[in-house]
Amino acid sequence: MSAILRYVRLRIQRRMTNTDNPNRLGDFFGGDRATTWSWLVLVGLVALAAAIRMPFALGSDFPLGDGGYTLSLIEDVRAADYRLPIHGSYNHDSIPFVYPPLALYLGAAMADLGLSEPLTTLRILPAVLGTLTVAAFYLLAVLITGSRSAALWSAASFALFPRAFRWLIMGAGLPRSVGLLLALTALALMHRAFSTGSRRYIVAAGVAGGLTVLSHPEAVLFYSGCAVVLWMTTFCTMSTLRQLLGVACVAAVVVAPWALVIVFRHGLTPQIAALRTMSEYVSLSTIPSRFEPAAGFYLLAFIGACVAVARRKFLLPGWMLLMLLLFHRGNTCWLAIPVCLLVGTAFENGLIPALRNARWGTAGVVMLVVGTFGYGLVESRRFMAADRVAPVPVEDRAAMQWIERQTSSTARFAILPAELYLVDDVGEWMPAVSGRINLFLMQGTEWMEGNVYFNRFQRQTDAVQAVHGGVASFDQWARRQDDMDYLYVPSRSVRHPAMRQILGYLSGSSDFVPVYSDNAFIFERRRPTP
Question: 241, 253, 418, 475: which is deepest, by most CB within 10 A?
């Protein structure tokens, strides 16, 4: 045994000290003193990322933000004894069960192995995986930038950048964080496959890519789009094209068992419906200035893009443009990848060399480092607070539990928002917690044909307009809701001035009976006696 261990140790040392390969293993995990320091700094950055992300999860007693649909899918997998269900049970909608299942199986397995209940998993694990993405991002950044210091600058910005983790730490962040972690790993392995031509890396990149496809729908677009741009801008040869096709074939083999099942059951109709739904979002609505105040990161990324173009390096600017074109929903985490890589480029090849050449170069570099980290720490906390990344209020969870105990299993609720939400956390969690029907629910319906998603969005829009239109407008709207059994006013909506007038009307209306009032309000609709 000692001889075997000695042999393995010698092999690792040879790989680490092999200077013929600029992307050797030592660039990541060992080697010279500079590399050791890089590794220690990376550990510190991962710890910094944990210090930013984990308090949000650990400080809550319920998953952050959305996640009701994810919880329902996990429970469906458990109820089917890990066989893929044909349809989901969420909101009684019979949604085709075509969602990528890897993260769902992970959540179900953790519950059945006694490690954590699904609600706890959705509260904690996304933040843990979102923290680990910093390390995976660093590995990719080393390969893309060709510099450990540039990669560390990129990883530092990724640890601090709100967009890089906002989507990941929420309840529905479980499949997102799994997808991003695997996509970053797959791209790093693909880069190594292109650089070395090694079959091991081709197979490894294909397996990681296949698992990415099985993790999250948007991770598929991110991974495949970035792979094509990587090949076109950096490795555009016939040899690497064959390697790219080899990676795709291996990924197809990994995905095939799941893909064949869902295509046999549902055809391509759910995927076409989902793509149509995504295409209806406002073009380029993910542009940062419209959704977040982190201007400093984008300014640095713009400098990095200018530096990259001046050096005729088009990969990172191409990635950024691709992310803006592919992902139309605001605050998606995928844009953070090229942004943070460009920040590292700006530091390594623009700002720091310029400051070093100045008379006050050392002081300038120190001020830049301290200012960037201080800005990032303050900005991440401020943005998360302003963006209301928080669990469903306790009052609404209590109302949902009352709904489960006191109403019929087929009861249909109109959840009355005071503002228009594309993602309504209370509305999404209500069917998962209570098992009752939300008439306005959009989550999951993007997989259904027949414009279900857009019809429900329109119903929610009409409800908000009725609330803001006053009592007469609301009364006319309510009379048209023939399928509504209950009106539910969430606690956040109660505080809106327009809603207070509506609550006064409902309390005195002969058409509605107040049945629950504890900071959230529920009214039962009176049906005319036949």
Answer: 418
